[in-house]
């Protein structure tokens, strides 16, 4: 099982014509954990729902990309720490009734990290409920207005250890995307106080990359605190990789529950339940007081 180390950039585009050069650039800037991202879009529109799709109507899911970085490559760029190179797939879709996810489930599971960009509210609901594939990252496109960003769904995703992505790469060259990303970041902040947020580059060329500490400064524009900006590049990235690995191995999240069956007088007419780890800790703390 691969675990993350150091600064993380979990979105290096696999469409780059010189992917190896981009990876080496990221590593030389100080990142130690990278994820090569492939993007797949299910083109079925909602008005086509119920229409039988032919085999050629589905987008193909390519195998995970393979890139070999030799010791000579690392030494030439002054990279002394062993990097962690992962694979990621990002699926954009609108219709939860589409057979795309179930049809290519096995191919999707070959990737280390699974990200989804739901462009409708119904697709977001399916993504959070994890009814088809286990999702690790929700990459909400800032230009998408089909999703209403229901706070209840966003909070449920946090409870299920799903993380949200903000990408700074498109903000560098496009002022419109920059404003849209800032708006999205503030929506996430008001929904759950910027918990479970990772910041990635979505770099397609080496020039889109920035040093980790520069990205942390950029995080302030996304409404992140100093600690939150650093966590978005380190701790949150580590969590994404860890929980993704656990889900691939079929390890479910443990939910703690404390049930009080009798009151202090020994009578059973009072029943109280404390569900979730935080509530269970609160109950135990009151008993020890």
Notable characteristics:
37% helix; 12 helices; 289 residues; two-stranded antiparallel sheet; alpha/beta; 9 strands; seven-stranded parallel beta sheet
Provide an overview of this structure:
This protein is of the alpha/beta class and 289 residues long. It is built from twelve helices and nine strands. The chain has helices at residues 19-29, 71-76, 100-103, 105-108, 121-129, 151-159, 169-173, 175-192, 212-218, 226-233, 235-248, 277-288, and strands at 7-13, 31-41, 84-93, 113-118, 137-138, 163-167, 197-200, 257-260, 272-275. The strands form two sheets. A seven-stranded parallel beta sheet has the order 1-2-3-4-5-6-7. Strands 8-9 form a two-stranded antiparallel ribbon. Helix 5 runs parallel beside helix 6 and helix 9 (212-218) packs across helix 10 (226-233). The longest helix has 18 residues, at 175-192. The chain is globular, with a radius of gyration of 21 Å. The two termini are 41 Å apart.
Short overview:
Helices cover 37% and strands 18% of the residues. The protein has helices spanning 19-29, 71-76, 100-103, 105-108, 121-129, 151-159, 169-173, 175-192, 212-218, 226-233, 235-248, 277-288, and strands at residues 7-13, 31-41, 84-93, 113-118, 137-138, 163-167, 197-200, 257-260, 272-275.
Q: Using DSSP, what is the number of strands? A: 9
Tell me the strand order in the biggest sheet. 1-2-3-4-5-6-7
Shape assignment = globular
Give the terminus-to-terminus CA distance.
Answer: 41 Å
The SSE string, one letter per element, is: EHEHEHHEHEHEHHEHHHEEH
Report strand %: 15-25%
Largest sheet: 7 strands, parallel
**Range of helix content:** 25-40%
Structural class: alpha/beta
Mean pLDDT: 83
Radius of gyration based on Cα positions: 21 Å
Number of helices: 12
Return residue spans where pLDDT drops below 50 for at least 5 consecutive residues: none
């Amino acid at each position: 099982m691969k675990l993350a180390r150091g600064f993380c950039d979990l979105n290096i585009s696999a469409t780059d014509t010189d992917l190896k050069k981009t990876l080496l650039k990221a590593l030389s800037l100080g990142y130690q954990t990278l994820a090569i991202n492939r993007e797949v879009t299910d083109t079925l529109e909602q008005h086509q729902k119920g229409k039988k799709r032919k085999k050629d109507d589905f987008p193909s899911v390519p195998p995970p990309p393979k890139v070999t970085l030799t010791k000579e490559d690392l030494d030439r760029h002054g990279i002394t720490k062993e990097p962690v190179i992962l694979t990621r797939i990002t699926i954009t879709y609108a219709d939860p009734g589409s057979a795309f996810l179930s049809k290519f489930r096995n191919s999707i599971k070959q990737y280390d990290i699974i990200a989804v960009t739901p462009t409708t509210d119904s697709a977001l609901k399916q993504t959070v409920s994890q009814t088809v594939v286990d999702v690790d990252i929700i990459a909400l496109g800032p230009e998408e207005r089909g999703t209403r960003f229901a706070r209840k769904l966003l909070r449920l995703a946090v409870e299920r250890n799903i993380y949200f992505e903000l990408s700074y790469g498109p903000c560098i060259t496009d002022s419109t995307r920059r404003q849209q990303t800032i708006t999205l970041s503030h929506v996430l902040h008001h929904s759950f106080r910027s918990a479970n947020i990772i910041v990635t580059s979505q770099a397609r060329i080496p020039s889109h990359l920035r040093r980790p500490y520069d990205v942390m400064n950029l995080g302030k524009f996304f409404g992140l605190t100093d600690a939150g900006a650093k966590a978005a590049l380190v701790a949150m990235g580590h969590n994404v990789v860890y929980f993704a690995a656990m889900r691939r191995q079929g390890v479910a999240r443990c939910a703690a529950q404390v049930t009080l069956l009798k009151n202090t007088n020994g009578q059973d007419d009072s029943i109280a339940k404390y569900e979730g780890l935080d509530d269970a800790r609160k109950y135990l703390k009151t008993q020890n007081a």
